[in-house]
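Entry type: protein chain
Record version: 2
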Amino acid sequence: MPTAAEKAGDFSSYGTAIYDPSTGNPDGTGRQVYTGGKIPQSLLNPITLKLQSSIPLPNQSGTSQNYFTSGTQALDRDNIDSKVDWNRTANHHIFGKYSVMKALVTCPFSLGPAGGAGLCNGGGAGTAPTLTQIVTLGHSLIITPNLLLDEVLGFSRMGQHGTDSFFGTNVGLQLGIPGTNGPDVRQRGFPIFNITGFSSIGQTANYSPFWRNDQTWTNSHNLTWTHGAHEIRFGFDMIRFQLNQWQPEAGSYGPRGYFTFEARSLA
């Protein structure tokens, strides 16, 4: 994390020359050095000042590896399974099943109001309510002592919507950066800022927010004929997948914008 001195433009502790980008030639030569490695307050960009005001100060010593934070990854899940069996006759059995799972995955931001990586196992910060439902209907019919018909119809649906605490807020536009947020609510939120030597800021999961509504239809029909020690089985299966998803993962950019600031040096 940047120190309080660095936020004020004071980089004297590094002992490295910092050049005024408004001076010199386009190729970087001939630029003037800031005295003592300190950038005058009057030259600090107002967008930068707004952005860094949300970044927490270091809570460890030094200028690197100087921030520690922790959080709780939460997964709350409820499951319900039910089944009904009906022996309509001695030769005909009918059943129905219904299962539902409702879950909520929660992963906090590592930098609080500045966003950052998620404090969880390999995932981005935010919440992802999930609802999965499965319905099955089936029956088995003994047509003759040697002939059995069994059929099963199944349907499953999974809905998952991932958002974060910045969802619906035009953070990029509030900072004063045009083009970072669009009119669609899914384009709102915190842009990604990668600065060499510092932790990334904003919603670093470029695939967030996301909507996944997937459905699967299955049906299976089987006819079994037995004769002595022989058994012949005929069948037909059909599966239909419906993937209805909105996930803005496009390279590293995401739907809100992506900014990278790399180190540059002059020979």
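Comment: Residues 69-261 form one domain.
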